[in-house]
From TrEMBL, chain A:
Native species: Streptomyces monashensis
Record-listed 4-aspartylphosphate modification sites: 52
Ranges for domain Response regulatory: 2-122
GO molecular function per UniProt: DNA binding
PROSITE patterns, per the entry: HTH_LUXR_2, RESPONSE_REGULATORY
Keywords: DNA-binding, Phosphoprotein, Transcription, Transcription regulation
GO biological process: phosphorelay signal transduction system; regulation of DNA-templated transcription
Gene3D superfamilies xref list: 3.40.50.2300
Coiled coil (residue ranges): none
Protein's name according to its UniProt entry: DNA-binding response regulator
PANTHER family noted in UniProt: TRANSCRIPTIONAL REGULATORY PROTEIN NARL-RELATED, TWO-COMPONENT RESPONSE REGULATOR
InterPro entries per UniProt: CheY-like_superfamily (IPR011006), NreC/VraR/RcsB-like_REC (IPR058245), Sig_transdc_resp-reg_receiver (IPR001789), Tscrpt_reg_LuxR_C (IPR000792), WalR-like (IPR039420)
Amino acid sequence: MRAVIAEDSVLLRVGVVKVLEMAGFEVVAEVGDGEALLTAVEEHRPDIAVVDVRMPPGFTDEGVRAALVIRQQWPKTAVLLLSQYVEERYAADLLSANTSSIGYLLKQRVADVEEFVDALRRVAAGGTALDPQVVSQLLVRRHSGPLDRLTPREREVLELMAGGRSNAGIAGQLVVSESAVAKHINNIFAKLDLPKADADHRRVLAVLSFLGVA
Amino acid sequence: MLLPWPAPGPDTYRFPMHTTARLRRLLLFPFQGAGRPVSFLVTGVLVQLGVLFVASLPWLLFLPVLDPAGQLLLAVFIPFTAIVLAGPLLTEVQRGRFRTRLDVAIPSPYAGQRPRLPEWLRSRAGHRQLRYHLLDGPLLALTGSFTLLAWVVAGTATSIYLWIWLVPLDWRVDHPGYYTWAAYVTAAGLALLHIARLSTDALSRLDTRTATVLLGPSREEQLARRVEDLTESRTGLVDAVDAERRRIERDLHDGAQQRLVSLAVNLGLAKATLTDLPEEARKVIGEAHREAKEAIEELSGLVRGLHPAVLEDRGLDPALSGIAARAPIPVRVKVDLPSRPSPTIEAVAYFVVSEALTNVVKHAEASSAEVTVERFGTTLLVVISDDGVGGAEPTGGTGLAGLAKRVASVDGTLSVDSPVGGPTVITVELPCVP
C-alpha cells in the first residue's frame, strides 16, 4: 500500500512516517501544505493520504478542503485527516460528501500506534474512522429525535459504529459477545426506522442519522 | 579620660557664626528664588493690561462720536463680548503662564479635542474659565500690581543712602539729621521687602489654586476622566493578558506538545516492534508510552485552560461543543451568533461556560445541563442552566466569585438564580460591539 503524508510539523511528520512504514505502507511523498498534497496525489495516486487539517498558508482548514478535492477527483485514494482539535463541521462536511474511505482523528491518537494503524488500514480498505471525541461532540448537537429512543447501551454501540468499528470490534470494546452486538444493532435499525436493505448500507445510514448529516 | 570643658573644637565658636548665617539668611530671604514668582506676577499683570487695552480700543477710538446709548454699548457690551470670544485663547495663555513661570501644569479641562466655541460657551468648563478671565484674574492682577509696587517702594527705600548720595550736596546740608532718618527708611524698606516677598508667594499660591479649579477640570470632570483612563487601561490589560495566553498556547502547541506526541509515537513504535525484548524492558517501554500519552492529555488540558486553539480559530460554537462533549453529563449547546465577538469577549464567555459546567459537575448533582449563547443588540447573553439540586451561592467557594470577577473585568454582569432544590440558572451578560 502506498501513502502520501501532508503535515507541516516536521516532528509529527517523521513520527507518522515511521508508523506508516511499520504498518507496511510505502510512503511515496511527504509534503507540507495543501497545494503540494494535491500535486503529490495526482502524481502518485496513493492508496491513502494522511492529512493535517491546519496547514500553511492560512492555517485554517486547508487539509479539509484538499481532502474533499481528493475524494472527488481520485476516489481510489482514501483520506485520513489529523486535527489538533475537534471541529464537527469538518467531520460533517467530509461525511456528507463521502461515507467511505474517510477518517478524522485527533493528532494525539497517532501515539496509540496499534489503534492508529488499525484506523489507517480500515480507512485504506474503504471504511471510516472517527475519533471518539468527534463522535461525542456531534452527540452534543443532537437535540431530539429518534436517537432519544435508544437505550444508553444502544447509543454506545452506535457511537462505536460511527467510529468505524466492525461488530467484532464493538464486541471487543464493550466486552460482550458478538451476537449481543448484533442484537443491539438490529434494535437500533428498528428504532431509527431504517429501511430493510443490505446490512452495510443500513449501517452507514444509521451512522449518518446519528451524526446528523443525513 | 577627662575632657576639658567646654571641649575644644568648631562647636565652641558656633554661636557667632550662627548669628552671621541667620542675619545673612534674613537679608537674603526676600530675593532667594524670587525671580520666578515675581515674573509670574509681572506676566499676570501684563496679560490683564493687554486684555484691558484691547477691550478698550473701540472705546478710546469711537467714544466721542457716539450718543450715550452707543457709548454704553461700546463701553460694556463690546469689551465683554471680546473677552468671551477670546476666552479659549486666554485660557491657553494663562496655562502657558503657569507652565513657564511656575512649572505648574494645569491639566486641560477637556477629555479630548478642545470643543468649538459654541459648545465651549455652553460648557461648565467654559463658564469657569470666563469667571477667571473676567473676575478672579483681574482681581489677582490688581493685587499683584500692588505687590509689585511694594517691591519697587521697598527697593527704593532700602537703597535710600544711594539716592541721597546722588542728590546735590547742598540738600544734605539743608536737611540736618537725615542720616538717622535714612536709617529708619532703610529698616522700613527691609521690612517691606519681606512683606512683598511673602505677599508674592501667597499671591502665586492663591492664583495657582484658583486657576487649577477654574481653568482645569472640575473634580467631577477629573473623576470622569480618571474613570475613562482606568477603563481604557483595564481594557488594554485584559486584552494583553488574553494575547499573552494565546501566545503561550501557541508556543506550547508548536513546541512541547509536538515533541511529546513525537516521543509518544516513538515509544509506541518501540512497544509495537520490539516484541523480542525481555518482559521487563517491554514493561518499562509500555509504562513510558502510557506516561507520555498522559502528559499529552495533561498538556492539552492545560492549553485548553489557557486559551484553546479551537476558540481562536473557529469561535465559540465549536469551542463550547468541545467542552460539552468532554463533560461527564449530557450538555446541550446552542450558539446563535451572526458574527464573532471580540477575542477577549469570546475568551470570557468560553471560561464562564467552562467553569460553570465544572461547577455543575462538581456540586449540582445534575443529570443534564444546557448552554445557550445569543446576541441581543450590543449584549452577548450566555445562559448556563442545569437540573441539579440548586443552592449555589455566588459568594461561596464554588468558583462563582472568580467567574463574577472575570465577567466584571469586561464590564459584564453575572447573576445566579439557584433556589435550594434547583434548578440553577446562571445568566451572564457581556458587552459586545455588533
